[in-house]
Amino acid sequence: MPDEEMARAVRAVVIAAENFRLRAARDVLGVGSTEMSALFYLFTEGTSTPTELAARLQITTASVTELVERLGRVGLARRAPHPHDRRKVVLSLTEAAQQQVGAMFERIAVSTARCTSLLDADGRETVLRFLHDLALAYSATSPTPQSGGAVLNP
Asked: How open is the CA angle 100-104-110, to the nearest 5 degrees?
């Protein structure tokens, strides 16, 4: 039986984070949600091939090409030749995008630090373990009931 209070609290965090991401996409960068997902991924990974980015965003490589064109027109992403395979290209953020997305992550980090500053070492360790396990569970959980879900052993 799920812990409804915990489920509501986690859902509130997930929704707040998604709302932040969507507001930042629209108000700060002037892009849509898919573009923002690409920017966050490229910020985290540094570079990506179009095929890798398509797999991450669950879109076609043709859609990635269009997405990178849009991001390139507004000065947020660029293409470069792949360093080891002349047939491929590598996608990355521009310096401006690095700074803007980095500033967003910094604002999130400051908000997180405010919330965690009252935890003692044991509480912090418990929260970190919970968040790690939750991320694993979410990654392993199928959105359809027929495919099952994740069950982690405590």
From this structure: 140
